[in-house]
Every structure is written in C-alpha cells, then in structure tokens.
Amino acid sequence: EQQSEVQSEVQRLLRPDLRGRTAYGAPQLDVAVCLNTNENSYPVPAHVVEAILAALAEEMAGLNRYPDRDFTELRKALTAYLEKQSGVSVTPDQVWAGNGSNEVLSHIVQAFGGPGRTALGFTPSYSMHPIISETLGTTWVDGLRGTGEPDTFDLSAESAVEQARLHRPSIVFLCSPNNPTGTALPFEVIGAVLDAAPDAIVVVDEAYAEFARPGTRSALTLLADHPRLVVTRTMSKAFAFAGGRLGYLVASAELVDALRLVRLPYHLSSPTQTIARVALEHADDMLGTVEVIKHQRDRIVEVLAQLGATPVASDSNFVLFGGLADEKATWQALLDAGVLVRDVGIAHHLRVTAGDPDETTAFLEAMTRLAPDHL
Ligand code: PMP
Questions:
Q1: Residue 248 maps to which CATH number?
Q2: Residues 261 and 141 placed together within one structural domain of the fold
Q3: Per-residue 3-state assignment (H helix, E strand, C coil) for 89-124
Q4: Would the CB of 71 count as within 6 Å of ligand 1?
C-alpha cells in the first residue's frame, strides 16, 4: 500500500502530459530465436573484438580525463565510412554522433522543436519519432500514409506535400527504409517535402539504409543542395553494433554546429568513441553479413507469400506481414515455439527481423505449421 501511495505521489508531481504513459520498449525475453528488434544476429568478428580490446587497453588509464567533446577522430571515421558506403563526400563538421540515433534525433528536436512547435510524421513509422517529439514538448501530428493499394503503406509525394502544407511543421520526419513497414520511400518524396515545408527541418531516418535493394537512392545525395535536410543513420543494424550505442547524422555544417547548443557536454564517452572508431576501421568485416541477411529477408517475403500471408516489400532487415486472423494469438504461438517477433500495433500484422539462416528457418517452419489456423 505504501508503494501505491508513493506511486500516486510521483504521478501527482509528474509533468501532466507524461502521466499515465508507459515507457517505450520491446519485451527483452530469454528466447532461443530473437527476431523482434531488428538487430544483426551475427556477433562482432573475433579479430575486430581483439582490435577493440587493444585500443581500449591503451586508453583506460586516461579515463581520469573527460573525453574529446567534439569526437574528432570518430567524426573522421564516420566521414570515411559514409564516402565508401554511399559515394557521397561530406566533411567531418557535417557529421554529428550520439548514443544511438535516438540521441541524435532528440538533439534535433531539442534544437528545432519544443513548445509551440509542431513535428509531422507519417504513420505507421518509427514510434520513437512521436515519443521524442512529445517528451520534449513538441506537438506531434500523426500524418497518414497509404493512399495506394491496401497494405502497401506507401507514401506518395502528392500526399506528403498536401499534409506538410496543411500542418506547417517545424520538423518533418521521413523514414526510409521505413520501420515498421520495411519499404524505402520513393526518392521524390524527400525533395517534394523540402519544398512544401519551407520552415521545417526535414529528417530522413536511414537506420536501415545498408539493406536497401539495388537502385534505392540515399537522401545523402541531396545534402549539398539542401541546408534544412538531416540524414540520420546508426551502427545498430547493418553494422551489427547495437550494444555499442552509436548513431549519427549528416547535415549542413551550420545545422550540426547548432546541435552543440543542446547536447550535454561529453555525451560520448571515451570508450564509446574508441570502440565505434575501431569498428568503423573494420567496416567491410562488420558489414560482411549484410548480403546473407538480405537473402534471408527475401526468403521470408517469398515463403510468407506462398503461405498466403501478405508480406510488405522490404528494403530493410525485417519484414512486416499481414493476413493474420489475430496477430496477438500468432505472436504468442510463435513465442511458444521459441521465436520472438514484434507486435507493432497494426491489426492483423506482425514484424519479423531477418536473422541468420537457422533462425529464419525456425521462424518459417513455425509459420508453416501455424498457417492453417492463423492465416
Ligand atoms: N530509427 C529507426 C527507424 C529505428 O528502427 C531505430 C531502432 N529501432 C532507430 C532509429 C534507433 O536505433 P539506435 O538508437 O539503436 O541507433
């Protein structure tokens, strides 16, 4: 009883707009096959582990000092990686990093959103975009996608432009490839939104860019002409470094400079800067599993379609699939079979991460067994 008294006291003191909310987060369960948070299933290669440990050993005695506040070496490493991965050259002062891309997204909202301002996103999309916006006092507008065929969740340039003109946002969130639907945006949407929202920072969240199907063009290629554009990326997905907590963004040097107004000093610890820098030096090895994972993703789409489900085309390391009679029952039945997937709150749909071939097989065999009763 005492506990519930304290609980109601906390609720009384809490910011009114936070009362009764529940915290974001997928269940972290101890399950054989974890395909619920879009991680890369493969461990960090042994020789990269060794290189990281050697670099850390040299630095531990220096932990009495604060880290480099401007993470200079890490920025250079990110610049080199981006050039290699996307062919786009940027300078280190155009790159900003944080503890996961969630943190760099929060820096953008702290600097460009806030009370009296509006952020617009197109739902369903990454659910942290509204959470970060609202917890930082920004009004969130849930824009719509999917004017096309049912279940494709497409966003057309025409629809995005109309919604951006209507809501006059300070920030627009685009997500390409989009989580949880998986598909990359038509490239023209980005430029069209930049034109239609002249007072907005336009964020393109490219957390899954490295998994995109051939022919997908990155928003990085637009940066040179658009000082209001921000492209965010992460080492958590293709790079197989989710536990390292390193996300980053690329924008104009002036926009990046403004983010220094809101970041906490020394937000990136010395070990974080070091492990990320060394991992980036081994980028080819860290990304060595991307093709296998893309293949598993395509396999999931193919087999689920054969079973009669409706998988959405994916440029990511996960697949959203519909056609389920009761997604909660299927989620539980998969868990009972030792496979954890994600209920993203879309009726009749679940999202599954493409794992290694064995994990993918475990999921597909379970779905094959369940199909007669669940689809
Ligand atoms: N953006 C998108 C679209 C994501 O799906 C995720 C991870 N779920 C993130 C950003 C954040 O990832 P991290 O903070 O690990 O970089």
A1: 3.40.640.10
A2: yes
A3: CCCHHHEEEECCHHHHHHHHHHHHCCCCCEEEEEEC
A4: no
The values of phi and psi at residue 118, to 5°, are: -120, 140
Say if residue 218 is in the same domain as residue 307: no
User: Can you tell me the distance from the alpha carbon of 115 to that of 363, in angstroms, rounded to the nearest whole number?
Assistant: 44
Q: Parallel, antiparallel, or unpaired: how do β-strands 95-98 and 118-123 relate?
A: unpaired
Name the pTM for this structure. Answer: 0.97
Q: What tokens were used for 371?
A: 């199909």
Q: Which residues of 32-71 are buried (b: 16+ CB within 10 A; e: fewer)?
A: ebbbbbbbbbeebbeebeebbeeeeeeeeeeeeeebeeeb
Based on the domain organization, do 305 and 253 belong to the same domain? no
Q: Model confidence at 150, in pLDDT bands (50, 70, 90)?
A: low
Among 131, 205, 351, the mutation site with the greatest number of ligand 1 atoms within 8 A of its Cβ is 205
Q: Which of 34, 39, 237, 267 to mutate to test the pocket of ligand 1 (most atoms within 8 A of CB)?
A: 237
Q: Which two tokens stand for residue 142?
A: 């849930």
Q: Is 183 in the pocket of ligand 1 (CB under 6 A)?
A: no
Q: Is residue 135 pLDDT above 50, yes or no?
A: yes
Q: What is the number of structural domains in the chain?
A: 2
Helix (H) or strand (E) holding 57: helix 46-59
Does the predicted interface ipTM exceed a cut of 0.90? yes
Tens digit of each residue's pLDDT (9 = 90 or more) over 214-267: 999 999 999 999 999 999 999 999 999 999 999 999 999 999 999 999 999 999
Pocket probe mutation, ligand 1, options 39, 40, 126, max atoms within 8 Å of Cβ? 126
Return the CATH number at 314. 3.90.1150.10
CA-closest candidate to residue 35, choices 302, 367, 310: 367
Residue 2 lies in a domain: no
Q: Is the peptide bond before 124 cis (omega within 30 degrees of 0)?
A: yes
Assess whether the C-beta atom of 181 lies below 6 angstroms from ligand 1: no
* CA separation for the pair 320, 367 (Å, rounded): 14
